[in-house]
Structures are given as C-alpha cells and as structure tokens.
Amino acid sequence: MTTLIINIKELLQVRETAIAKVSGAEMAILPTIKNAFLVIKDHLIADFGSMDNLPQIPADKTIDASGKMVLPSWCDSHTHIVYAGNREQEFVDRINGMTYEEIANRGGGILNSAKKLNETTEEEIYNQSKARLEEVMRLGTGAVEIKSGYGLTVNGELKMLRVIKRLAQNYPITIKATFLGAHAFPLEFKGNHQGYINLIINEILPEIAKNKLAEFIDVFCETGYFTVDETQQIMEAGIKFGLKPKIHVNQFNSIGGIQAGIKYNALSVDHLEVMTTEDIEALKNTKTMPVALPSCSYFLSIPYTPAREMITAGLPLALATDYNPGSTPSGNMNLVVATACIKMKMTPEEAINAATINGAYAMGISATHGSITIGKKANLIITKPIPSYYQLPYAFGSNLIDTVLIEGEIFA
Ligand code: NIG
Ligand code: FE
Questions:
Q1: What average pLDDT does the chain have?
Q2: In whole angstroms, what is the distance from residue 221 CA to residue 176 CA?
Q3: Closest by alpha carbon to 340, among 256, 272, 247?
Q4: Counting atoms of ligand 1 from 1, which one is nearest the CA of 100?
Q5: For residue 115, how many other CB atoms are within 10 A of its CB?
Q6: Which residues have C-beta within 8 Å of that of residue 189, sequence separation ≥ 6?
Q7: What spacing in Å lies between the alpha carbon of 274 and ligand 2's midpoint?
Q8: Which numbered ligand comes closest to the C-alpha of 145?
Q9: Mind listing the pLDDT tens digit for each residue in 35-74?
Q10: Among 22, 244, 300, 395, which residue is least crowded by beta carbons within 10 Å?
Q11: Distance of alpha carbon 407 from its chain centroid, rounded?
Q12: What pLDDT shows up at residue 407?
C-alpha cells in the first residue's frame, strides 16, 4: 500500500540528531521543506522532498495537501488516560478556595480516583479510557505513554495495566505502559509506608514482570507523597524487574527527586514546576529528559517549568499533557504547545521539537517516532490550510487539524 501526499505547503521535518533528541540552542532549529511531497509505504515514511523531485511511482492513494502543513504526530510522553469517572467536584471546590493539597489531605485527590477505580469493572474502565484515547488521536497524538497509579492495590494496579495493554493491542497508536503504584499511600498504609512499598516490591512488581505489563516505573516524589529515599528504593526494585524509571518530581517542592532520577538513569524527570539552579545544573550532560506539563500548571494555577532558563543552560525539554482527572483533565497536545509558547516563552520551533522528537525520546521511541525521517512510522498530522506553522500556537483555541494518519492510515 503506497500513499502519496503532494503539494504540501510546508513539511515540518523536525531534525533527526545522532542522540535522538534536541537540546539547548538546537531546539530553535526546525528544518522544513516548502512545496513538498511525502511517500508512505507499508505504514512507514518511504520518501519525502521537494515537489520538484516528485518521484514517478504508482500510488494506491494520493492526498492533495495544497495550502496545508504536514508534521510528525505529537508524542505525548506523560499521561494517566486510564481512570474511572472524574473529579469535577474537586475542580469546583478549588474554584471556591480549597487547594489541591487540602483536597488531597481530606482523602480526595488521587485517593478519590483510586476509590472510584477499584469500584469500577475492568470493562467499564476500558470503555471510558478508549474514548479518551480516541479523542487524543483525533487531536494529533501518534504515540502516548499511559501510567497506572489509580489502583494502589494489587488488583487495581494490575487491572489498570491490563487495560493499557488491551488499548495497545486494539489501537494502531504506539502505547507505552508505566507502573505508578507509588502514586500515593493508601489510607490503610498511612502509618506504615514501608508496608505499602513492600507490597509494591514483593507482590505487584513480580506480576508485572511475569505478564510484561509495563516498561517503565514511576514514583510521585514529593512532600506528602514519596520521599527521595522511598523513591530510590522503588526505582531500584523496578530496575531489578527490568523497568526503566521515569518519575514525577519537583511539582510543588524541590526535594532532590531530580538528582535521584539521574542517579538511577531515569529516562525522564517530569513536572519541574519548581526548579533550583542546582536542579538545572544536575541535569546537564545526562541522558535524562526533562519533561514539562504546562496544561497542569494552567489547570492548577501553579508555576510553569522555567523553560527559558533550562534551554539557555543547554538542556533539552519535552512537552507532554499529563492527561489525568485531578490536575489536567485534558489530553490536547495542541493546547500544550500553545501554552508552552504563551506562558513559558518557548518559540514555536522549540515547542514543536519538544512535543515531537523530545517527547519520543522520553518514551524511548525516538528511533521510530517524532520526526519526518525515512523508515520512521507514518504517524502524521495534516493541518487545515494555514498561512504558516506559527498558527499552531498562535490560534490557541482553534482546531487546525484536518487529517490524522497513524501508521499511514487515516484515523477518522
Ligand atoms: O501528574 N502529580 C501526581 N500525579 C498526577 C495527578 C494526580 C491526580 O491528581 O490525580 C500529576 O499531576
Ligand atoms: Fe502525571
């Protein structure tokens, strides 16, 4: 099956580098080809270039992209798409003055979602989650990481991971599973943290490894959640079971989570709303991708990740949604890109790199996703006719996506 996309007004290539991510000043570089073509064969990008060099090949299908842009699909490296119900009441409570912390302390927040999840059947969770997945695919996401973490029991966590696996089997989008049993301490372990950690290590992790239910291990390293020592203990156990760390750090406080992540070779450290100079220094010359979640900052009215300081320091940065019922009930990567430009002063080029190739790196899939490169998956966004790619962040409330291709097929 060969598909030809022709007359592309501008093809946003996204640069492929030897280390499969872009850092610092490189993030400002976004190679594009004006008046371009792209060939898809067997679900992969087979060729692309200027229309002047359009190859004479038989195509099963031709898409005319006159006036439109083509770019790689968004790579959303941090989500909690699998959950039950919603937390709209807490949203209204926050409008009326309560803080996210106060809500969590009264047994709401993550524990509220965990209660709902444990009371909901696996089938129902699958149905709710697949609707969210289809929504983000229509919004241009072509690869997504999904975490557990609303079970907080052996059964609940495994149930979530099975739902993620089933989504991965039933949808063409690339899905990476992360075990986040260490998301919060269940009430019954409030006075016995080690007891819950032992449950994670001795009962849940072996099941995950046996059934290949996750590739990554996550911990919410934060005051009131998991300490740095507890985080290290859990990362260490995860690594023994073959899982690579990717952790929540520095959302509200800088307590050393970044340094712990780096020590255990975390693929990414995510949130980073509160960053010290030492935190930025620590990330230099490491393989760990910093990930910012600006729609979480927006929804909770908390600081934005200091992207400018980090990029000026030479660091890479990825952007993800954090789609979850409590802190970010939105999986819209277009809004994330716009918010990064508007609130974090990232340039459109930096934001697009952060949401594609660097997001792919933060899921360990930059060899196959995140740029227009021959041999990579044909996961593409075709925009509506727009004057330039600046429109993507500029027209922040508009849906500028015309067509989404996943593995070379139109996703309707
Ligand atoms: O990434 N910070 C920790 N976990 C999620 C939110 C969890 C929730 O409120 O349900 C996050 O923001
Ligand atoms: Fe998160």
A1: 97
A2: 21
A3: 272
A4: 9
A5: 19
A6: 195, 196, 199
A7: 15
A8: 2
A9: 999 999 999 999 999 999 999 999 999 999 999 999 999 9
A10: 395
A11: 19
A12: 97
- One-character DSSP codes across 147-194: E--S--SHHHHHHHHHHHHHHHHHSSSEEEEEEEEETS--GGGTT-HH
Q: Is the complex ipTM higher than 0.85?
A: yes
Q: Name the residue with the closest Cα to ligand 1, atom 1.
A: 322
Tell me, using a 6 A CB cutoff, whether residue 110 lines ligand 1. yes
Task: Write out pLDDT tens, residues 95-111.
Answer: 999 999 999 999 899 99
- Pairwise CA distance, residues 303 & 298, whole Å: 8
Compute the distance from residue 326 Cα to the ligand 1 centre, in Å: 6
Domains defined along the chain, listed by start: 2-72+371-410 (2.30.40.10), 75-361 (3.20.20.140)
Residue 193 among known ligand-binding residues = no
Q: Quick one: what percent of the chain has pLDDT higher than 90?
A: 97
| Distance in Å, CA 149 to ligand 1 centroid | 9
pLDDT of residue 322: 98
**pLDDT score recorded for residue 112:** 97
Per-residue pLDDT tens over the stretch 14-38: 988 777 889 999 999 999 999 999 9
How many angstroms does the Cα of residue 180 sit away from the middle of ligand 2? 9
**Is any atom of ligand 1 closer than 6 Å to the C-beta of 218?**
no
**Ligand 1 nearest atom to the CA of residue 251, by list position:** 2
